[in-house]
Amino acid sequence: MAEATREEEIQARRSDFGLRLSTSMSKFGPLCVGIDPHRKVLSEWGYQVDAEGAEMFSMRMLQAAHGRATAVKFQTPMFERYGSKGYAALERALYAARQMGIITIVDCLRGGLSTTISAIADAYFKPGAPLKADAITLLPYYGARSLNNLTEEALSYGRGVFVASLTSNTEGTSLQSAIRQSGSYKGKTVAYGIAGTAQKFNQDIDGMGSVGLIIGATIGQWITTGGIDLSQFTGPILSPGYGWQGAEAQDLKTVFAGTRGNVLVTVSRSIATQGPQIDKLAQATESIALDVRQALSEATKETASKNSAGDGRKRDITARKIQTNVHAPSSASSHSTNGGSGRDGK
């Protein structure tokens, strides 16, 4: 009994981030506000280009996101450039987001050897972590399985991770589309192997899993070339590239056709350029959130329509087979029925 209870507790922690994220997405939609205090934006806002300016920027963006977006994503290099003061600003911004009840993603693209894993967990996941976040981004190019221990650490604390798979920068295509020469995903693309490794953590989880992918909204038809079927992926998908980087609503429909409400689109500069007035930032957030929700909803509807049409064709074929069997001689009918059962079973 005690062992069963412990297993349930472990499973609950492993699914915690995915559950919280899906609940928030159901309420606020598929928008994640990126908090990227670019030097140019800070200057345009009339802020000093320093740690204090980055913190003030972050607090304003949090106010705009609160109650209008599912999550916020902090771009750590924008804070790291200011050294210890920048880290302190990020720490305070993360604390403010937690107090507001906003889901936080730290875009730090961490990865490495097993000896560094515990340090990363100490920084972002464990109780009392200085940069405590709901999820972080990971870079899998030490090998996707090199992230297993860190992912397990995150899940054990009810946190999540997003693993870079098909990124929004064109320079990544040559590496991500490379064909694997060995291992369990031999003959598949590198991106496919990353997605497959991530999905294993989401198996046996009811609803949305806690291990996600980063899939750029700018990749277009390469989602098919990369061999990844996102309709089979049950974790969250974090998608940069919409707006400032060039992706539009049609791109979301193309790339994410087949998904089932698990795409979280991150937008930063398209919102930030409307500041620093809170009302304008809030208006931009609401407008973009609506556009993103509609585009992804249409992608889902198109897929549902295709599936429905396919089901209809299958029913017509089945009906014709049944009708043929009914009017055929008994011996032929028996033969046809056996053959039909054999085909259905394959």
UniProtKB/TrEMBL annotation:
GO terms (BP aspect): 'de novo' pyrimidine nucleobase biosynthetic process; pyrimidine ribonucleotide biosynthetic process
Gene3D superfamilies, sorted: Aldolase class I
Disordered as annotated region, ranges: 299-346
Keywords for this protein: Decarboxylase, Lyase, Pyrimidine biosynthesis
Taxonomic superkingdom: Bacteria
SMART domains in the cross-refs: OMPdecase
Family annotation (Pfam families): OMPdecase
Catalysed reaction equations from the record: orotidine 5'-phosphate + H(+) = UMP + CO2
Signal peptide start and end residues: none
Class in the EC hierarchy, top level: lyase
Pathway: Pyrimidine metabolism; UMP biosynthesis via de novo pathway; UMP from orotate: step 2/2
Protein EC: 4.1.1.23
InterPro entries on file: Aldolase_TIM (IPR013785), OMPdecase_type-2 (IPR011995), OMPdeCOase_dom (IPR001754), RibuloseP-bd_barrel (IPR011060)
SUPFAM superfamilies listed in its UniProt record: Ribulose-phoshate binding barrel
GO molecular function per UniProt: orotidine-5'-phosphate decarboxylase activity
Chain ranges of the Orotidine 5'-phosphate decarboxylase domain: 30-284
Similarity field: Belongs to the OMP decarboxylase family. Type 2 subfamily.
Identification of the protein by name: Orotidine-5'-phosphate decarboxylase
